[in-house]
Amino acid sequence: MEGSSSNEHIVMLPMMAHGHLIPFLSLAREIHQRKGFTVTIASTPLNIQYLRSTAGTEIKFAELSFSNADRGLLPDTENTENLPLDQIVNIFSASERLEAPLRQLLSEIVEKEGKPPLCIISDVFLGWAVGVAESMGTVNVTFTTCGAYGTLAYMSLWLNLPHRQTESQEFTLRGFPERCRFHISHLHRFVRMADGTDSWSRFLQPQISNSLQSFGFLCNTVEEIEPLGLECLRKFMKIPVWPIGPLLPSALLKKSPSSAGQFYKHRAGKKPGMSVEKCLEWLDSQKPNSVLYVSFGSQNSITESHMKELASGLEGSGVPFIWVIRPPLGFDLRGEFRSEWLPEGFEERTSEKNQGLLVKKLGTSIGDFVAQVHRSICESLRVEFGGGKLKPGSTDNRVANGGGADVQFEDVGGGNGGECGADERAAE
């Protein structure tokens, strides 16, 4: 590290969602540890409070004043956690109100340090930061917390809405090879309904377009895993794209319950739904590659009737499973678990047979898997390769991917020329 490196300052601006805040914090730590730069993460007061609870003193934080008064949200709503899907666009739109306080923060840094920050690293959903950086005499670098393949699909879908330009159920997507066919059923209902005048389109299209004007693009992926995805993304964006992932604290590479527990505490900043020790003990009682992990992520859920059907299917299959349960649609997302959501006696029967483990709070302790496919696979690969014990192609020596199959790299990013179907659902 050069002696002058520590004089540089980087300001980071994450989207107001835990799935974005956490990778930004991991990236901030990596930059500080490797280069000695001063790194300041700027966000709303409650998000900064959350980040401070997970970080040490090496990262600086700046609170940006924020108001969502006319967005149909509760006054203390400053991130997407526990928000119904149809309200998430409201807080996304409100994020544009961070521009003025960000400009104030940058002005204070210039006044104190005599120069603007080296750069602003902003979320792909906060494209307005590109103009802020230019006006303050610095550059903006965009960071996407997902992989290249899914990021390109998401960006191209929202910018072009190709399903609106054909009567066919299948369509090609700008930026992808002709052989990559997408189906209307792969799209989230908000995308299917989008016509360019809806609230999602009005927010996402200008933010994505502005992000394409960045100095460069950071992607939470690995070149060797996503060669096709990165190649396509670079051609589409026409700016430098640097794979910097998978971002995962080194503590998780230590394969012990205590290390995993410390990792979860510092990464998620909240109590897990189950102790690490109990989860690992249960996993160790199962056969290798036999366990099905079920989670719909932090922003999704299913209906009560679907939940009961899923439970019946899991029990009937006889397959061991870990199921992270969130309240079904129509219930308070912050509410406590209710046994009535599941078939009568389901939990008792599957527990007695050692078939199932229910985690009644989002955020498991098995490597902090998340429902977003790309990041889950990348993080599990990082754990395996870092430990130096497992070989490519396996997910975990106890937890199987999806229906029990090993990870196929081409399914993540197109691989080395395979078909392009498996992970197109990442566009959701």
Which SSEs are present, and which pair or pack?
Elements: E1 9-13, H1 18-35, E2 38-43, H2 45-52, E3 60-63, H3 85-94, H4 99-113, E4 119-123, H5 129-135, E5 139-144, H6 148-160, E6 170-171, E7 182-183, H7 189-193, H8 199-211, E8 216-219, H9 227-237, E9 241-243, H10 257-268, H11 276-284, E10 291-294, H12 304-317, E11 321-324, H13 346-352, E12 356-359, H14 373-387, E13 399-400, H15 409-413
Parallel strand pairs: 1-2, 1-4, 2-3, 4-5, 5-8, 8-9, 10-11, 10-13, 11-12
Antiparallel strand pairs: 6-7
Helix pairs in contact: 6-9
Q: Kindly report how far apart the N and C termini lie.
A: 41 Å
| Order of helical and strand elements | EHEHEHHEHEHEEHHEHEHHEHEHEHEH
Class by helix and strand content?
Answer: alpha/beta
Strand count, sense and barrel status of the largest sheet are: 7 strands, parallel
As a percent range, the share of strand residues is: 5-15%
Keywords summarizing the entry:
single chain; 428 residues; alpha/beta; four-stranded parallel β-sheet
Describe the fold and architecture.
The chain has 428 residues and is α/β, with parallel strands linked by helices. 38% of the residues lie in helices and 12% in strands. It contains 15 helices and 13 strands. It has a seven-stranded parallel sheet, with helices on both faces. Strands 12-11-10-13 form a four-stranded parallel sheet. A two-stranded antiparallel ribbon has the order 6-7. The longest helix is centred in the N-terminal third of the chain and has 18 residues, at 18-35. It is globular. Residues 363-376, 379-419 and 421-428 have low confidence and may be disordered.
